[in-house]
Specification:
The chain has about 300 residues and is of the alpha/beta class. The longest helix has 21 residues. The chain has twelve helices and 13 strands. It starts with a strand and ends with a strand. The chain is globular, with a radius of gyration of 20 Å. Helix 3 crosses helix 12. The strands form three sheets. A six-stranded mixed sheet has the order 3-2-1-6-7-13, with helices on both faces. The chain has a five-stranded mixed sheet with strand order 10-9-8-11-12, with helices on both faces. A two-stranded antiparallel ribbon has the order 4-5. Strand 11, helix 11 and strand 12 form a beta-alpha-beta unit. It folds into two domains: about 130 residues, Nucleotidyltransferase, domain 5, CATH 3.30.420; about 160 residues, Nucleotidyltransferase, domain 5.
């Protein structure tokens, strides 16, 4: 049995799994950051490899699924270089985390998946010639329905309450002030940070908690997020992608988001079968690495690159 290293780099954290004849073990690490030079991926890969005590020659194949690989980097080379430095010259797959998430959630079948955490995107594929990405443009230009999107909407709403432009969001203002401090400090906390998307997403637990307590403003905000995610999923499901879909990501821990997405998807595409995810992005990365090692995988640049 071969030994596989699967890596998942995302805005909410990083994970790795070493799976081989002796079983599997996992490690977790820091979130993926974005600097002026692009993705800061190499230190995360190195730290995960060290945490798993992997040495050159221990691994037969590697797959790294990374957030931002399509839009926030100069391509997969930065990730490949990190892998080569950490474990040597082995069969390597570098993919968008949308790809690894789709493969994991659908159990390797064709269809579409919407994934949302700090950011959000949807990917539809027939596993042959079509790899269709929707959204994933980052917290300034897109990522509708994501943690950073919800956080931005929540802070904007709280600021409207603070400024006297509305009077129904006092609980949300109080929660966000308790987390971030006075509103006058928010621009500096957000605009000057490399991890500003993560800072925005940090208020999501407050929104979810208030919504669970029947706060109408927060419930409406989460329902809007669910509808936005459904819109992305519908766009990803255009032919030749078959009408099979799933989801993945921490935002769906809020039941109201999933409920709203189901309703919107059923209204827009009643033919689509929406199934719970069968696996994670880390499972998808392991599957892709094994397929690459068996020569049962073909590249689909820029979504999936083989070395």
């Amino acid at each position: 049995m071969s030994t596989i290293l699967a890596v998942d780099l995302g805005g909410s954290g990083s994970r790795a799994r070493l799976a081989g004849p002796g079983g599997a073990r996992e490690a977790s690490g820091e979130r993926l950051r974005v600097s002026a030079g692009g993705l800061v991926a190499a230190p995360l890969v190195t730290a995960l490899v060290e945490a798993l005590d992997v040495r050159a020659g221990d691994v037969d194949a590697v797959c790294v699924g990374s957030s931002g690989i399509l839009t926030l980097s100069d391509g997969p080379q930065v990730v490949l270089d990190a892998v080569r430095t950490a474990v040597g010259d082995v069969r390597t797959v570098v993919a968008s985390d949308a790809v690894t998430s789709a493969v994991g959630a659908l159990g390797g079948r064709a269809g579409a998946v919407v994934l949302t955490g700090t950011g959000s995107t949807a990917l539809g594929t027939d596993l042959a010639d079509c790899w269709r990405k929707v959204d994933g443009w980052g917290h300034v230009l897109g990522d509708a329905g994501s943690g950073s999107w919800i956080g931005m909407q929540a802070l904007q709403t709280a600021l409207e309450q603070h400024d006297g432009r509305r009077s129904d969001a006092a609980a949300l203002l109080a929660a966000t002030v308790a987390r971030l401090g006075v509103p006058e400090s928010w621009p500096r906390q957000i605009y000057t940070r490399e991890d500003r998307a993560g800072v925005l997403a940090s208020v999501v637990p407050d929104v979810v908690a208030l919504a669970a307590g029947d706060d109408g403003v927060c419930r409406a905000l989460l329902r809007l997020a669910g509808r936005e995610l459904a819109r992305s999923l519908v766009a990803a499901l255009r032919p030749p992608v078959p009408p099979l879909a799933s989801w993945t990501g921490g935002i769906f821990g809020a039941a109201v988001v999933l409920e709203a997405m189901r309703e919107e998807l059923a209204a827009r595409r009643p033919d689509v079968v929406l199934e719970p995810p069968r696996g994670t992005s880390l499972d998808g990365a392991e599957t892709l690495a094994r397929r690459a090692l068996a020569s049962d995988l073909r590249p689909a640049k820029p979504f999936l690159t083989l070395y």
